[in-house]
UniProtKB/TrEMBL annotation:
It is found in: Membrane. GO terms for molecular function: monocarboxylic acid transmembrane transporter activity. SUPFAM superfamilies: MFS general substrate transporter (SSF103473). Residues 202-234 are annotated as: Disordered. This is MOT6 protein.
Length: 489
């Protein structure tokens, strides 16, 4: 091999060598970050007794953590663009660890909102999303496989965190446990250190300025060099407003929401789904303990959900990728949401441990479908060149309902003193969202067929048509995406 070829291979480590170490680090990152909120239910009863807090007050703590984990995507994207993925992951690990260590010294439930909720949630967001982004630079040919393997980390976290947390809680109490968990989360910094930047090939020219930006820069440089007098304040503020609007347009695609009916329906449906989706994760362990199940066995319930996810989620992803489901993945997603809602009625029937195990199996299977299809369907309804912008608005809206869902349900439980309302509420939101998405897309599809039958010109297709968009980049497209922040359920 020539020296030039050897240099190019050394500068482009994609799909080989160190890339697989980066993948291993990303698996661990997802277990540490996305899997971590699954263990919060283990501490729910102890925190209530410690701070004399209601169900609603206690549930704000995990709700803030999960909401910030999802809503911090645009901020993480800016951070990655400015400082790189390695810095973002290590900063996230530091914030997560400091947040949980600080939580061990909290004297009120409101202090937990800041330390464990906001700081740990934001740190988890930075580490997770920057870790997913770096895979796009280290993998080209095997990018789909790498992302699928990385997602198994979430299921591993769901399986191991509750068991570890319950063991530590029994041995040393919740304060010392939070201290140890903070130390474990600092391992995100080690994962970030592994993610060294991908170097460009020797002789690669720097990225040129965009043509639209050059006249503005020249004009600005001329004003500065000539010592021209400062323009009127109103004239000076106008470019800033335009820049602000362009930033919002880049990270929050309101234009897509207004123009694309498929994206509009799907975003509203998923946002409504999240009102009920998070409730079993928060309240299942307290519900089991309230009905006489031993604490260790109650923590095992969440681990059962995670263990089944490890096997079912990849199978669901492979099944949905079959050409039979091309153009129909939204209906598979709606079916998974519907089954998830119906499974909640199992808990209403009985709170015996064997019945709760059956519920966990059914809930986990349907949850795997939701997790595997959420972003695949979003890629189907939005052009890939606007996917990052569409994802920004999508994650922020769903984070709002993730934030308010558990506390509102906790308030209802406090008023009625009946945990059954947790599962009634969850079923209502999930079933209604599934019916809304399925029926709306069916009506939209019929409307598009009627338009085609009325001989709509081919060069002017309907603006709101639901089409399959290619999830993989074409052969001629640049390999890594700019900065795409991705969340997982």
């Amino acid at each position: 091999m020539s020296q030039g070829g050897a240099a190019r291979n050394a500068a482009r480590p994609q799909d080989r060598g160190w890339a697989w170490m980066v993948l291993l680090a990303t698996v661990l990152l997802q277990a540490l970050t996305l899997g971590f909120p699954s263990c919060i239910g283990v501490f729910f009863t102890d925190l209530q007794h410690e701070f004399q807090a209601s169900n609603s007050q206690t549930s704000w703590f995990p709700s803030i953590m999960v909401a910030v984990l999802h809503a911090g995507g645009p901020l993480c994207s800016i951070l990655v663009k400015r400082f790189g993925c390695r810095f973002a992951v290590m900063l996230g690990g530091l914030l997560s660890g400091v947040g949980m260590v600080s939580s061990s010294f909290c004297r009120s439930i409101s202090q937990l909102y800041l330390t464990a909720g906001l700081i740990t949630g934001l740190g988890s967001c930075f580490s997770f999303q920057a870790g997913v982004t770096v895979l796009g630079y280290y993998f080209v040919r095997w990018r789909t496989l790498a992302n699928a393997m990385a997602s198994t980390g979430v299921s591993l976290g769901f399986t191991l965190w509750p068991l570890l947390s319950q063991y530590l809680l029994d041995e040393m109490g919740w304060r010392n446990t939070f201290l140890i968990l903070g130390g474990i989360l600092l391992n995100c910094c080690v994962c970030g250190a592994i993610m060294r930047p991908v170097e460009l090939a020797p002789g690669t020219p720097p990225q040129p300025a965009k043509p639209a930006e050059e006249p503005e820069r020249r004009a600005e440089g001329a004003r500065l060099s000539n010592g021209a007098s400062c323009p009127h304040p109103k004239i000076q503020q106008q470019p800033r407003r335009i820049a602000c609007l362009q930033t919002l347009q880049k990270y929050l695609a309101f234009d897509i929401f207004c123009q694309n009916k498929g994206y509009q329906i799907y975003t509203i449906g998923v946002t409504w789904t999240m009102m009920g989706f998070a409730l079993p994760h928060v309240y299942l362990v307290p519900y089991a303990i309230h009905n006489g199940v031993e604490e260790r066995r109650a923590a095992l319930l969440i681990s059962v959900i995670g263990l089944i996810n490890i096997f079912i989620r990849p199978l669901t992803g492979l099944l949905s990728g079959h050409r039979v489901f091309t153009g129909r993945r939204i209906y598979l997603f709606s079916l998974a949401v519907l089954l998830c809602g119906l499974s909640n009625f199992i808990c209403v029937i009985s709170a015996e441990f064997s019945v709760l195990i059956l519920y966990c199996v059914m809930f986990s299977i349907s949850m795997s479908g939701i997790g595997a299809l959420t972003f695949q369907v979003l890629m189907d309804v939005v052009d890939m060149d606007r996917f990052s912008s569409a994802l920004g608005l999508f994650t922020i809206l769903e984070s709002i309902t993730l934030l308010i869902g558990p506390p509102l349900t906790g308030l209802l439980v406090d008023i009625t003193n009946d945990f059954h309302y947790v599962f009634y509420n969850s079923s209502f939101f999930l079933i209604s969202a599934a019916l809304f998405m399925g029926l709306s897309f069916c009506a939209l599809e019929k409307k598009n067929k009627l338009r085609e039958a009325s001989k709509v010109p081919l060069d002017n297709p309907p603006r709101h048509q639901y089409n399959e968009m290619p999830a993989e980049p074409r052969c001629g497209s640049p390999s890594p995406p700019a900065v795409v922040y991705i969340t997982s359920i």
